[in-house]
Every structure is written in structure tokens, then in C-alpha cells.
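The record is kept unedited without comment:

——
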Amino acid sequence: MTRSIQTLSEADRRLVAEWSAACAERVLGLFEGEHPGDDRPRAAIGRARGFARGERDTASEIRGRFGGGSAVRDARSPAAAAAARAAGQASAVCHMGAHALGAAAYAVEAASLSAPDRPEAAEQEIAWQMVHMSDAVRAALRSLPPLGENRSGPLGPGLLASGRIGEIIRRIQAGLCDTERD
């Protein structure tokens, strides 16, 4: 069986898992503000960090992702739903590194939706993500195919490649080529 280019090596998945968890954690309060007793997105971020530290393996993380049901269904606002999706995407990095871009994009969307009076919110969130990306994370993410060009993973034609999330991922991928950081 041939591994998808979107998978990344285990070492690279561990690197991008921490970065994607940090992206998702920045907007976690949007979900927790609506559902203070619901720890599913926080637990997903914790599992992503545990995977990044080598405390969890891919198989246990995949099992953990599906244990508590989807917090997205319980979100009342679009911003809270996007925050929950960011956490879910971060926890999926264990099996396919391309989900890191999904986590980042949903975090940008959550930040943007929570600040409708601030059109610059999305660009500010992307800028934060780029500044907080190590050179190793940048290199790993740069090795992923451009959105929509490879069918064997989350960056193929589908949910992440369409609409606003697709636009955000394209902006993030374009930013990966920039050699300067703010």
C-alpha cells in the first residue's frame, strides 16, 4: 500500500501536531464560552499535544478522536462550531499531517466569525500562525501538495478545498513560501 503524500512522516506529524494544537487553542474559548462544561474540543487539543510529545501513538489517537462524539453538532454559533472543528482537525494530524492546515484554517475562520466588525481578524490570525511556525513545521507543511491537487487526503477536492476554508488554506500555503517572518 502506498502512503499518501498528505500523510507526512511520523516525525513531521508530531511537529505539526503541536503547531495545529496551538492554532486551535487560540479560539477554544469561543466554544467553551457557549459550553463551559463540554471539554471535548479541549481534550482533542490535549490529545494532539500528547501525540506531539510522543505520549500517544497513531492508533490510540485515532480511537480517541471518535470516543466523545462531535462537539460541532452542539455549537450554537458558527464561530464556536469553527473552533470545535479546529480542535478536531488538530487531533486528526496523528494519522494525516495535512489536517494541520485544516486546524489552522478553521481557527482563522473562528477568529473571523467572532469579530464581524473587524475585517482584518482573519489576516491577523494567519499572521500569528506564520510567526509561531518553526522552520521545521514550515518545511513539513511546505512538503504537502497544494490544496485540491492530490485526491488522497484532506487536501483533495472536498470540504477543506471549498469555500472560505479553501481560500484560507490557499493563503496559508502561499505564506509558507515566504522566507521572511514578521
Remarks:
- The chain has one domain: 10-176.
- The chain has nine helices and no strands.
